[in-house]
Amino acid sequence: MERLQKVIANAGYTSRRKAEELIRNGKVKVNGEIIRELGTKVNHTDKIEIEGEILTNEDTKVYYLLNKPRGFICSVSDDKNRKTVVSLIDTDKRIYPIGRLDYDTTGLLLLTNDGNLANQLMHPKNEVEKTYIAKIEGNLSPSEFYHLKKGLDMDGRKVFPTHLKVKKTDEKSSIVEISIVEGRYHIVKRIFEALNHPVIKLKRERYAFLTLGTLKSGEYRKLTLKEIKKLYNLKP
Q: Considering the entire predicted model, what is its pTM?
């Protein structure tokens, strides 16, 4: 017997977090009965149905690294008919993004049907480092730079970069490289907004040890077996 949300994630349908959302919203049936309680346990003989689709286990796991373009949302589907990152990948597997990049944020994004890895990488305790290049309004003063380096209080928790570097400045804007292990929604934009330097453009350049390399906007590649094993073995 295993928890329903874990079974859904392990089958490659979606991430465990999204599976929990589907269960809470009454989108999941087990043996014809709607299940809303998280932690409900099922076995391999139970018939699991998600939004009218019977769940089947996808044995073959796939892993992609995408250079996300601007104007795509990090979702499998969208009720507003906006373009999704999944549509950029040529595969017959039901894949989904690991974490999110905003609609107007570009750069490195991982997609997979491996629920175990997705859950591991997104869990806050594993502290996976992400590096961004942000173009912000104005210039960081020495005191603002020091303040950010030492950490900002946000939502009752301190957020601080693991790496911070001003790469370029002019009269109106700056280019800042920032690395964080935080995964909260809009966190990089909120960091600079807290200092009154709104983000103009944002690109994720690195995820853990992975980089974009020569991938152009909209291009993707499969992860190597060595890279997949290394992601599984990441330590906080």
A: 0.78
